[in-house]
């Protein structure tokens, strides 16, 4: 395609080690395919044409092909340039590819010169090598416990796995694109066909985001080219008619719509995140109270027991007030910050005139006696405010 490819660090393909792209290396096939995919995703059409020129100059600085391809559009070298990129870096091509590279290249030049539609047998053979046969490489994890000489292991993250899986399916989509370019009269792939492809390869919402990253820039370029307002793009896509460009733009629109659908399905199916329960100790951690009072012989209970209690009795050693808190509903009393919550409006406190005697009687009182204990005190009822401080003793808690 015209223009630069996406070379952002987020989606960059690993740069090949050409010392390993040789047939004598036992992992040759894997490194060869990795080099092809690097050229496919990371090099622009302009870069690939430069690789063709470099290869020809290496053979003969005055090679006759140099003048013939000088004014040809770089898009015509997008496939053949990948193979010459490897050859320029002293890499080896597979035995079944090597004898067909130069004939395919000569055919491309001839067809361009004679205005014959491009993309027949030899070029198709080379294109399919990337779009279909080489996709097997995408199923192999980059950095997967390979020990080629002293190459260090690469730690594979979850995002790496998602990107690799997305690239695997992107290889199949590239095959569809190659098929379309060879037969522009063929029906455009529908959204349903893309969704079925994704599901067949077990892609999920997170994979779909990476698929979008791979294709969205190219899709935007093709849509703009179909509008016909950009001169550079008009030249770059001159081998497409306007109706063909519209079909190609629809192809990419459907591709991205299928990605959106996968992400929407993931949102619907995603279970709501469960709220982590707060520990009881943390709930009462800010509650202030007095641990004991030796003069009155009273000791506080553990404040954790207040949670879900039906009733709580407190005594303020400074103000001499006895408080009775009653739960508002079946949830019981609770604690928020430094105070009590979920208590009734008839929860009251009263001043105790003789603390030692009253509290001694309170400690001996049964549940039945406690029902009227507060009423028996002759002092005035004061509504409880729920606040505790360092002077409060937690006398009694009834569950």
SSE blueprint and pairings:
Blueprint: H1 28-42, H2 45-59, H3 64-69, H4 80-88, H5 98-114, H6 121-131, H7 158-182, H8 191-200, H9 205-227, H10 231-236, H11 242-269, H12 280-283, E1 292-293, E2 298-299, E3 311-316, E4 321-326, E5 334-336, E6 339-341, E7 348-351, H13 355-364, H14 367-376, E8 382-383, E9 392-398
Antiparallel strand pairs: 1-2, 3-4, 3-9, 4-7, 5-6, 7-8
Helix pairs in contact: 1-4, 2-4, 5-6, 6-7, 7-9, 8-11, 9-11
Task: Walk me through the structure.
With 399 residues, the protein is of the alpha+beta class. It folds into three domains: 1-144, no CATH class; 157-170 and 180-270, no CATH class; 280-398, no CATH class. 47% of the residues lie in helices and 9% in strands. It contains 14 helices and nine strands. The strands form three sheets. Strands 8-7-4-3-9 form a five-stranded antiparallel sheet, with no helix packed on it. Helix 5 crosses helix 6 (121-131) and helix 7 (158-182) packs parallel to helix 9 (205-227). The two termini are 75 Å apart.
Q: Kindly state the number of beta strands.
A: 9
Strand content: 5-15%
Mean pLDDT score = 81
Largest sheet: 5 strands, antiparallel
Total domain modules:
3
Shape: rod-shaped
Rg for CA atoms? 39 Å
| Uncertain runs | 1-11, 116-120, 141-149
Broad structural category = alpha+beta
Q: State the end-to-end CA separation.
A: 75 Å
How do the helices and strands follow one another from N- to C-terminus? Answer: HHHHHHHHHHHHEEEEEEEHHEE
Helical content (DSSP H or I, runs of 4+): 40-55%
Question: With helices defined by DSSP (H or I, 4 residues minimum), what is the helix count?
Answer: 14
Strand order of the largest sheet: 8-7-4-3-9
